[in-house]
Design brief:
heterodimer, A: mainly alpha, 10 helices, B: alpha+beta, four-stranded antiparallel β-sheet
Chain lengths: 217, 171
């Protein structure tokens, strides 16, 4: 695959959420608003990039039996790093989504990329693959977060100051009247319904565009 | 070098490197995290007492101590052991009894902790106006027994201390 293909594949034909259906647990739990979704997406991107890069760099020195322990060590290390950074510089967000940042360590999307791609390819390709996957995950997460935030609470980009500092508070937009709330969309059942509709849409689009519907991997 | 030795060495070096990185980052963030927690304590204390400028005139009570507020009210800090570790709480009392209870920090199971961590949970609402002596007779929440019992017993223990205001009789 060419370099640009690697990047785009992670977003489209190999999108971790819409096509591979990986990482759904944190996706459903954290996508109540754009701010929380973006927080998890950034933490996942850090872990994905760090672990993919190092695993690709170490791949020649790792015998088969040491592969999985090394993957887990690196992924756990980067996840802890993300949690520490978030606790220090995005404390409000940390108190809300820390649990789901911590379980990035068990996210099969990240272990999947390490095993399927990074451990068999050069560093450059592994970085691009991680970037593509991270962007694909972020787009799916933020899209779901945006829909649920608008339907559930009538706002968009509320609470971004927890992520980017006080100046980002002005990003908040009130889309629907102030007293509007549809609790269903903000609660877990809403996550399943909206995510299901999005998956259906993604399936419909891929079925139309790829006539040679082979393996999504 | 055979595979076994090489794998062992790579894993060992990797462990050392990851631990070192985390130790450095932990050290670098400790001060900031402590500052964040203190700010959070102040936010809770000021919301509980309704005094938004409290931090300009007072210092936060240490666990097991209290500070005097206007109108004969007192802010008490306490710590107790819950299911997952220390639960840190703030209580607001006046001569009639308890006026509010807030959990500042806890390590309880996510979800289960909602019974105590959300100030508007029905179980926490009971503490909004409660003669201190009545706290001991509150029911715990099944499914969150250890968590809620820790909180109830702490309040009940404070009720028998002489330097705290006590109601004449239970309702």
């Amino acid at each position: 695959m060419t370099t640009s293909n690697l990047l785009v594949a992670g977003i489209t034909t190999r999108n971790p959420v819409w096509i591979q259906m990986l990482g759904l647990c944190p996706l459903l739990a954290v996508s109540t608003s754009v701010a929380t979704a973006l927080g998890l997406a950034m933490a996942s991107a850090l872990v994905l990039l760090g672990s993919n890069t190092l695993i690709a760099a170490l791949r020649r020195w790792l015998p088969d039996f040491a592969r999985l322990p090394a993957f887990m060590l690196l992924i756990a290390g980067f996840t802890t790093l993300a949690v520490l950074l978030m606790e220090a510089w995005a404390f409000d967000l940390y108190t809300r989504i820390a649990l789901f940042v911590q379980i990035i360590v068990t996210n099969c999307m990240i272990l999947g990329r390490a095993e399927q791609f990074a451990s068999r390819n050069a560093i450059g390709a592994a970085v691009l693959d991680a970037l593509g996957t991270a962007i694909g995950f972020a787009i799916a997460l933020v899209a779901l977060g945006a829909v649920r935030e608008v339907i559930g609470r009538g706002t968009l980009f509320a609470g971004m100051d927890g992520l980017f500092g006080a100046s980002a508070a002005s990003l908040a937009v009130t889309v629907l009247p102030n007293d509007y709330r549809l609790l269903l969309a903000a609660l877990p059942p809403g996550a399943f319904i909206v995510a299901g509709l999005m998956l259906a849409l993604a399936r419909a689009l891929t079925a139309r565009t790829s006539q040679n519907a082979g393996s999504p991997r | 070098m055979n595979d076994g030795l090489r794998g062992f060495l790579v894993l060992a070096l990797l462990s050392v490197a990851v631990s070192a990185l985390l130790a450095v980052v932990h050290d670098a963030t400790t001060a900031q995290v402590a500052a964040n927690r203190l700010k959070e304590r102040w936010r809770v204390a000021e919301a509980l007492t309704g005094l938004p400028t409290l931090h300009e005139t007072a210092s936060l009570p240490l666990p097991g101590t209290s500070i005097e507020l206007p109108d004969h009210r007192r802010l008490i800090a306490a710590e107790t052991r819950g299911y997952g570790g220390t639960i840190s709480i703030l209580l607001l009392v006046d001569p009639d009894g308890l006026r509010g209870l807030r959990v500042v920090q806890h390590h309880e199971t996510p979800g289960v902790a909602d019974f105590i961590a959300l100030p508007d949970s029905p179980w926490m609402q009971q503490f909004e106006a409660l003669p201190l002596i009545a706290a001991a007779s509150l029911d715990t929440v099944s499914g969150a027994t250890i968590t809620t019992r820790a909180l109830r017993d702490t309040v009940a223990r404070l009720a028998v201390r002489d330097d705290l205001p006590r109601a004449e009789s239970a309702p």
